[in-house]
Structure formats: structure tokens, C-alpha cells
Automatic annotation (TrEMBL):
Pfam families: polyprenyl_synt. Belongs to the FPP/GGPP synthase family. Its cofactor is Mg(2+). NCBIfam families: FPPsyn. CDD domains: Trans_IPPS_HT. Keywords: Carotenoid biosynthesis, Isoprene biosynthesis, Magnesium, Metal-binding, Transferase. InterPro entries: Isoprenoid_synthase_dom_sf (IPR008949), Polyprenyl_synt (IPR000092), Polyprenyl_synt_CS (IPR033749), Prenyl_diphosphate_synthase (IPR053378). This is Geranyl diphosphate synthase protein.
Length: 383
């Protein structure tokens, strides 16, 4: 049994077949998207998009948002109601509250206050600061889809959240995004200093793997090793770190295309969401074919998460988001609304949600209901 699936990264391609006019066309980037036929997701939109379809100045974006905000919010609310009606027999609110409480307790029990006090206080400050706990919930839901239990999945679920927290702590540093607000509170380095914030993030990263190895019960050693390999792969130089470094190196570059943006977010954001789902499937006892379907589901919702994040960044306030709103615009970063516009970005999000849920069609609807509801939650969340 292979430890990791090499398809988690994009593969080189010398040229692709242009869907618009039937001719061969070399791409600016030689990285192709893994979801379908090795083509970037952008090629499955209504047309191949190479440049922004509207002026991407701050004023133009603000004007669009101001003019259409009320109508868009009304439409979004309507779509959300329709989406959740398909799982109306499943009490998603109760599920979210129950799982969040379980995850929060497990995280608090895992990272105790001990010597050296400052490093553990820093770790706990960010880890226990709240948050949606989407990654651990996805991990648990994937495990339960195959007959596993919450307790079996919890060490892996907590590990995913520890690593996610580490990535936020490091992302907020002055050398990265230089942010002062996270989850409605001052960022870690603002409270504990940059040096401690870096070390606390490192400690969470290391402890995540220790926690999987020592706290996972009722799972074969072979599957635990596979979980460790999967998680390491999705956050390393071909996963989360790859997306982060390309993002950093892309700042100030004017001509960034959609496939380049997709590479960043498939790795920076989607990789850990994918890993969270796959970890749950592995410890839940899924076979390789089932894991493959869950992987495709997770990649779609992972990219969906970032598309929605980009939309919220320019349509919500800092108070509503619990973090600094509009910071990507200020930093002149390339985002989906900047390249596609708000409406096309929302269409793209809808498409990703549909494609994700198609991967669950062959599973027991009742057991798949939490994953379907979580996909809809990611698609229609407000913060």
C-alpha cells in the first residue's frame, strides 16, 4: 500500500488543447490542474480566461460591491436555503455544535499548560481561540462515512487543526501577511512576540505528528503510518508550503493568470482540507477506490473554500470576518474576484460545490449527509 498519493500535486504539460477554438496552445504556466483530464479548472468555465474581465482597481471593485450588495446577499441567502433543504432531515446545526465542542475539548486536553509556560501559552492562545473547526469536522465525517467513530478520528482531526493553526500563526507574521487580527483577537505575534509565535507554530507542527502516533487507538499501524505520510505530503514543499512560497513570490507581479492563482490555492488552502478528509477516510477503513473519491471531493471543496474566502474579503467587514477585511486589495494580491469579477467567482464556487457533491453520489446518503452539509456550509458561509 503506498503511503501517499502522488496526484496531490500538479503535473507538467508542454501544451494543452484550447477549448475555445480547437487549436493547440502553450500555457504561460506549465502546471496543470489534477481534477479533470489534467486541465486547469479555469478551462471548464464558460470560456478560457487569461486576463481580468474588468478593471481591477480598488474603486471598481468597491463600486460593484456597493451597487449590488443587497441583491447579492438576498440571492446568497436563497441559495443557502435551497442547498440545505436537500439535507433537511439532517440537523447540521446540532452536528456542528456537537463536533465543535468535542474537538475543542480534545484540543484543550492535548495541549496542556506546562513548562516552558510561555511556549505552551502561545500554542494554546491560537489553538483555542475559536474558529470554525472545518478541518477536524471533515476528518471525523469522512471517518464516520466508513463506519469509523469520532474517537478513532479525533487524533487525526486535532492534528489537522494544529497544523492549520500553525499556518495561520506563521501567515500573520510581519514577514508574511503582517496581520494584526485573527479570529477576532490580536494575532499571536502581537501578544507573545514574533520569536515566540514562530516557535509556537513549530511546536504545534511537531506535536501534530506525535499526537497521531501516540493517541490513535483501534487503527492498524499500517494505516497510522499512511496517515502520517499523507499529512506530511499535503503540508510540505509539494503542498501547503508550495502554495505559500509561490504566493509570496507572486506579490508585485502584474500578469498573473488564473491557472497560476489556482496553483497557489490548490496547494496553500486546498491541500490541508484534502488531507483532513483523506486522513479520516484512512482511519475509518476506506479502500483505495473510496479514498480516491473522497480525495476528489476534498480538492473541490478546498478550492471552493478559497474562492469563497476571496469573495468574503471584499464583501464583508473586519468585524463580520473576525480578521482584517480587504487586506488582499491593499496588498494588491491576485484574487478570484479580481480576475473573474464577483459574479463569475460565485458561479465558479457553485460549480466546485456541485462537482464535490457528485463524488459522494455512490455512498449511503445518510452517512454522507455531514460531508454534503459541510460542503454547503463552506459554499454559503458568511465568515
Amino acid at each position: 500500500m503506498s503511503l501517499v498519493n502522488s496526484s496531490t500535486t500538479w503535473v507538467p504539460a508542454q501544451s494543452i488543447y484550447c477549448l475555445e477554438n480547437g487549436r493547440s496552445s502553450s500555457m504561460r504556466s506549465n502546471l496543470c490542474h489534477p481534477l479533470k483530464n489534467q486541465l486547469p479548472i479555469s478551462f471548464f468555465l464558460s470560456g478560457t480566461i487569461r486576463k481580468p474581465i474588468f478593471s481591477c482597481s480598488r474603486l471598481s471593485i468597491s463600486a460593484i460591491i456597493t451597487k449590488e450588495q443587497t441583491q447579492e446577499e438576498s440571492e446568497s441567502k436563497s441559495k443557502k436555503e435551497v442547498a440545505f433543504s436537500s439535507t433537511s432531515s439532517f440537523d447540521f446545526k446540532a452536528y456542528m455544535i456537537g463536533k465543535a465542542n468535542s474537538v475543542n475539548k480534545a484540543l484543550e486536553d492535548a495541549v496542556l499548560v506546562r513548562e516552558p509556560l510561555k511556549i505552551h501559552e502561545s500554542m494554546r492562545y491560537s489553538l483555542l481561540a475559536g474558529g470554525k473547526r472545518v478541518r477536524p469536522m471533515l476528518c471525523i465525517a469522512a471517518c464516520e462515512l466508513f463506519g469509523g467513530t469520532e474517537s478513532v478520528a479525533m487524533p487525526s482531526a486535532c492534528a489537522a487543526e494544529m497544523i492549520h493553526t500553525m499556518s495561520l500563526m506563521h501567515d500573520d507574521l510581519p514577514c508574511m501577511d503582517n496581520d494584526d487580527l485573527r479570529r477576532g483577537k490580536p494575532t499571536n505575534h502581537k501578544v507573545f512576540g514574533e520569536d515566540v509565535a514562530v516557535l509556537a507554530g513549530d511546536a504545534l507542527l511537531a506535536f501534530a505528528f506525535e499526537h497521531i502516533a501516540t493517541a490513535t487507538k483501534g487503527v492498524s499501524s499500517e494505516r497510522i503510518v499512511r496517515v502520517v505520510g499523507e499529512l506530511a505530503k499535503c503540508i510540505g514543499s509539494e503542498g501547503l508550503v508550495a502554495g505559500q512560497v509561490v504566493d509570496v513570490c507572486s506579490e508585485g507581479i502584474a500578469d498573473v493568470g488564473l491557472e497560476h492563482l489556482e496553483f497557489i490555492h490548490i496547494h496553500k488552502t486546498a491541500a490541508l482540507l484534502e488531507g483532513s478528509v483523506v486522513l479520516g477516510a484512512i482511519v475509518g477503513g476506506a479502500n483505495d477506490e473510496q479514498i480516491s473519491k473522497l480525495r476528489k471531493f476534498a480538492r473541490s471543496i478546498g478550492l471552493l473554500f478559497q474562492v469563497v474566502d476571496d469573495i468574503l474579503d471584499v464583501t464583508k467587514s473586519s468585524q463580520e470576518l473576525g480578521k482584517t477585511a480587504g487586506k488582499d486589495l491593499v496588498a494588491d494580491k491576485i484574487t478570484y474576484p479580481k480576475l473573474l469579477g464577483i459574479d463569475k467567482s460565485r458561479e465558479f464556487a457553485e460549480k466546485l460545490n456541485r462537482e464535490a457533491q457528485e463524488q459522494l453520489a455512490e455512498f449511503d446518503p445518510e452517512k454522507a449527509a455531514p460531508l454534503i452539509a459541510l460542503a454547503n456550509y463552506i459554499a454559503y458561509r458568511d465568515n
